[in-house]
Amino acid sequence: MEATNDLNYDSYLARAIEIFNDRMDADFTGDNIILTCFMTEDQKEIFEQFCSKYFPYRLNDRYQEEGYFDFRASSFIGIDNGGKDGILLRTDIPYHPVELLHIFLHELAHIYCAHHELDGKSFYDEYCEDYAQTKEEDGIINAGYAVWRECIAEVIAIELDDSCEIVPLKEKADVLRQLKGEIEPVDGKLAVSEILAAVMTSSEIEASQTWEEAETAILSLNLFDTPPEMDLFRLVYTQLRTTFLEIDVDFIHELGYLYLNILSLAVIRNLRQN
After folding, report:
1. pTM metric for this prediction
2. Which residue in 4, 47, 127, 223 is a FRET match for 97, CA 20 to 30 A apart?
3. Where are the domains of the chain?
4. pLDDT, tens digit, for every residue of 59-101?
C-alpha cells in the first residue's frame, strides 16, 4: 500500500495501543491517550486549543517560534488533568500504514517512559530546569536527556514493531555514516539518538553476551572508534541491559558529557574538511 493521507488515524493508534499494552503491560486506552490532528495552516490554533484543554503548562512552549512544528508527531504528558496524555499528529503529509503505526509506537514509548523512568516523577521537571549549580552543568543534563529520550523511545518502538527487521550492522553502515555526518550543533542530538538506536537494535548487538562482544562488532564497522563514541555505546549498552528505561541523573549527565565531546570532535572534523 502506498503512502496516503486517507488513513483512519484512530484505528492505527488503537492498534499501537493494543501492541503496547500486550508487550509492555501498559494501561493505555482510547480515553487516556488523546489524539489530535493538525496541519500547517492551523497548527498554532490547534496547539493552543489542545493545550488549553488538556496540557495548559505546554502553552509556555516557544510555539510561536519558526521551526517549532517541524515534527510529524509529538507526545504530551498529562499533569493533574485526570490521567490523560496526548499525541499531536501532522496530517498534511502522506503516511505509509507501516510508518504511521511505528510513529504511534514511538510516541507511546515517550509517554510510557515519562511515567516510568523516575518512579512516576518527571525527569525534566526534577533535573532539567535549574537543578545544576551552573548553566554549563544544566546544559550537559539537558543534552543528555534529549539524546536519551529519543533513543529509548525508538529502541522500544523497534522492538515492538514486527515490521522492523533486526539486521546486521553492515546493512546499516550507509545510514550510520550519513547520520555521523549530521552531528552538528543544531540537530546533532537527534542524529546521535538515531545512531544509538540503530546500533543497539542491530543483530550483533542484540545477540552479544558481553560489552566486549558488542564493542568488537561496532569497531568492525570502521566508522566509530574515538574514546567518547565507544564510551557512549558502552554506557547505553549497559543501561539497556540493567535498568533499561529507568534512569537517574548521573547516567544522564554522563551521557550528556559524552555527547558534547562527540559534538566537539565532529565540529573540529567538519572544520578540517572545509
Report:
1. 0.97
2. 47
3. 9-116, 123-273
4. 999 999 999 999 999 999 999 999 999 999 999 999 999 999 9
